[in-house]
């Protein structure tokens, strides 16, 4: 076996990835090269149809590259013999948790993945308890998933992913349908998992969530059009708008302040930071 | 101005499997005028979608009364007439779209109301134009082959084709990107201005309706707590997070500035926020 020394078994590496949906005129992803690291949170942004969901689905082998390759934790997703391991190492949650629910109780729901791995009962028990605790829903263990609130269901779906002990968690707009309180709980959970060493890749429309990420990738028409820290990518409201995104209010106010002769540093993205500048 | 729609002490509960029932609405009273854009704001599960369906006569309340103008809606005839004047856009456009082409889908409602021939075609064309849907390009396609944003607009065109005087929309902005939200906002403003329609938007995301809504009704656990204007939401000490919501970043900034004593001409205008901050900073740095 030839060992490719450039691959890193800890990361997700994408090289020259092109993906075209059947019957579509042009590719949904065009020659994308990116790297996602464990212990980091990356937000994927972009207008509707920009390719961000398609990219998310390429990371755990739900979609396979047309050209180029995706190496998830060193495993090439196109290699069918890797399919099971890739889907275990890179877990995925979606916008509507209802589409993922199969169990009669929350506990069964969370146990579903580990059971399919054929683990011993004691190990399954341990994993389910750990996942419920991490997600902060231990008290919901005996409840019926379909009778829970939308936000609670999403936490159950994420607990199910945690129970697989993945290296990465990919959220395809897992917060889009949730109200603010529920969204906050999910984002806090992502932060907790990230600190525990998991890599988080979060597709979202909310730029305020992206301000919390380690890095931001913006797609447009299947291409990576911006990437870097939130401060590098989200500070200029004109550029942000041109990418089809809703600029942060704070950056618009900072831009207006320049017309009054004040220069607010471009890395000011939050209300707290702008107020700190104002009262400095 | 004369009231368009009035709800008086409305209650509704869903039967639960097994025993009992869950109250979705209790004692809700509200009134809206023509040309108003009312945002009914509440967390997931607060009862706001149920209220949206009551506002269009789709769900009949167990207790309380619904008035259209001065008329109490009572009995089958008046209810049928009211349903013709009220339109509801569901949260999920796939719940609304069903025909084999976009054009037929939009035509379905007005055709049922007796429109035909040129008149029908004109109504379909106007409705599609109002929501910015290119009919030449998409009219012959299956609604289910459209993108999420296009589906939302096709569904809205179908509702507007009925020319409703009361237009109720359930979470219309969810899943739309910046440009999609902007174009929907413009379509709604245009319809309101042209038709003097009353618009009711149900949402948990205040940032999506922050500049569009003329008044906000806060809903929690099936109760309509109170109505607030944008200015009241900013100056009051309503704890929105306890209702599962937050002010948009605009509002959060304006609120902090107001609290620290800055005066702002129009808290919804970024230029006014910047102006107030510049005055403060200038006075401080200068002195």
Radius of gyration of chain B: 21 Å
Uncertain regions spanning at least 5 consecutive residues of chain A: none
Structural class category of chain A: alpha/beta
Query: Can you give the helix content of chain A as a percent range?
Result: 25-40%
Please outline the helices and strands.
The complex is a heterodimer of chains A (280) and B (287).
Chain A: E1 12-19, E2 29-36, E3 41-45, H1 52-59, E4 67-72, E5 75-76, H2 83-89, E6 90-94, H3 106-116, H4 121-135, H5 150-162, E7 168-172, H6 180-195, E8 199-203, H7 207-210, E9 215-220, E10 223-228, H8 230-234, H9 237-242, H10 249-259, H11 271-278
Chain B: E1 5-15, E2 21-32, E3 37-42, H1 48-55, E4 63-68, E5 71-72, H2 76-85, E6 86-89, H3 102-112, H4 117-130, H5 135-138, H6 148-160, E7 166-170, H7 178-195, E8 198-203, H8 206-209, E9 215-220, E10 223-228, H9 230-235, H10 249-259, H11 270-286
Parallel strand pairs in B: 3-8, 3-9, 6-7, 7-8
Antiparallel strand pairs in B: 1-2, 1-4, 4-5, 9-10
Write a structural description.
The complex is a heterodimer of chains A (280) and B (287). With 280 residues, chain A is of the alpha/beta class. In chain A, 37% of the residues lie in helices and 20% in strands. Chain A is built from eleven helices and ten strands. In chain A, the strands form two sheets. In chain A, strands 6-7-8-3-9-10 form a six-stranded mixed sheet, with helices on both faces. A four-stranded antiparallel sheet of chain A has the order 2-1-4-5, covered by helices on one side. In chain A, β9 (215-220) and β10 form a beta hairpin. In chain A, 51% of the residues are buried. Chain B is α/β, with parallel strands linked by helices. Chain B contains eleven helices and ten strands. Chain B has helices at 48-55, 76-85, 102-112, 117-130, 135-138, 148-160, 178-195, 206-209, 230-235, 249-259, 270-286; strands at residues 5-15, 21-32, 37-42, 63-68, 71-72, 86-89, 166-170, 198-203, 215-220, 223-228. A six-stranded mixed sheet of chain B has the order 6-7-8-3-9-10, with helices on both faces. A four-stranded antiparallel sheet of chain B has the order 2-1-4-5, covered by helices on one side. In chain B, α3 (102-112) runs parallel beside α6 (148-160), α4 crosses α6 and α10 packs parallel to α11 (270-286). The mean pLDDT of chain B is 90. The A-B interface holds A 46-49, 95, 149-151, 173, 176-182, 205, 208, 241, 244-246, 248-250, 252-253, 256-257, 259-262, 271, 274-275, 278-279 and B 43-45, 147-149, 174-181, 204-205, 240-241, 244-246, 248-250, 252-253, 256, 260, 270-271, 273-275, 277-278, 280-282.
